[in-house]
Design a protein that fits this description.
Largest sheet: 8 strands, antiparallel
Helix content: 10-25%
CATH superfamily of the largest domain: Mog1/PsbP, alpha/beta/alpha sandwich
Order of helices and strands: HEEEHEEEEHEEEEHEEHEEEEEHEE
Shape: globular
Number of domains: 2
Number of helices: 6
Length: 324
């Protein structure tokens, strides 16, 4: 893409700062990229029209020319939340870092990269014929394996770490030092359905043992699920939340909560969220999925599976829990 005259609509500083990206695509790393370059981002400047469409993108910084060209192609797949002034959409200009799927992240996803980890397996209780392509995520601490639908694109570790650095200097919600890692983001993946602007986003968070006060029982798990829901829907309106449910599944206790609401953005959009928490050794691990309200997110989580230690691989949730 080249910068054109149509992309030069002036945007004041306030508009630049409030531009948002709804969906970010991470392209595969170009063949022959030098070692070390793949873990660095390409920085682009996006030029958006008042109709919230990408008019153009220009290259600001890239480790290699091939990565820069791949990032410009990836920009065409981004979607955006429009910025408005006094209720009127305006042209905008924003900077974005494009992170790449490296060998490790591409192998884990089993999605767009088409590499390892894309085998099929039984997914749902009572339906052994239900098969689908899956990606695999392995966590070292706590140790477990998580399988998820392969059409989710794994967000690169570099992007997650960059996002987390923006919040690491804030006071801890648990009263600990700002740099104490209480909630460690282990995994995030997204998928964008055809014709939609808002992706489904699936995350895994580890609540570190130092941040847990008291016995990890079903009450603790319910509290984690409930607080996670509240922290998200605090930014929504017209919210309806479910009661937290405690589930016993294959000898493991899960707590699940869900909510629907409308996001506070320049375009009101109905969203769903489902949170599931369980104990893995001394850690509380939570799964969170957010997406458009017309998607059944619980069915997506039912298509995910968990394996801890020598346990057999098990579905994360039953096909339907009844929580809405």
């Amino acid at each position: 893409m080249k910068r054109t005259g149509s992309a030069t609509s002036a945007a004041n500083q306030e508009e630049v700062e409030h531009g948002t990206v709804e969906y970010r695509y991470s392209p595969p790393l170009p063949a022959g990229t030098p070692e070390g370059a793949g873990n660095k981002p390409v920085v682009l400047q996006f030029y958006l029209g008042a109709d919230n469409k990408l008019r153009d993108a220009s290259l600001e910084r890239a480790p290699t020319q091939a990565m820069g060209e791949a990032a410009l192609e990836a920009a065409k797949r981004f979607t955006f939340t429009p910025y408005t002034v006094n209720g009127v959409p305006v042209p905008n200009r924003i900077y974005q870092s494009i992170w790449f799927q490296t060998g490790s992240t591409a192998g884990a996803t089993g999605g767009d990269s088409g590499s390892a980890g894309s085998g099929s397996s039984t997914l749902r209780d009572g339906d052994p014929t239900q098969q689908m392509q899956q990606g695999t995520f392995h966590s070292d601490s706590p140790s477990f394996s998580f399988r998820y639908p392969g059409d989710f694109q794994l967000i690169p570790r570099g992007q997650l770490e960059a996002d987390q650095r923006h919040t690491s200097d804030k006071p801890s919600a648990y009263g600990l030092d700002p740099h104490t890692a209480c909630n460690t983001l282990l995994f995030r993946a997204q998928r964008l359905r055809p014709g939609e602007n808002t992706p489904q986003v699936l995350s895994i968070v580890d609540l570190e043992p130092v941040c847990i006060f008291g016995t990890i029982d079903h009450n603790m798990l319910e509290s984690v699920a409930s607080n996670a829901i509240k922290s998200v829907v605090n930014h929504w309106h017209h919210v309806q939340t479910s009661q937290v449910q405690t589930l016993q599944l294959h000898g493991r206790t899960f707590a699940e909560a869900s909510a629907t609401g409308v996001a506070h953005t320049s375009i009101d959009e109905a969203l769903n969220i489902v949170v599931v928490a369980t104990k893995i050794r001394d850690h509380v691990v939570g799964w969170m999925i957010i997406g458009p309200a017309d998607n059944n997110l619980e069915e997506t989580l039912a298509a995910c599976s968990l394996q801890v230690g020598d346990e057999h691989e098990r579905p994360l949730l039953p096909t339907s829990t009844g929580a809405k």
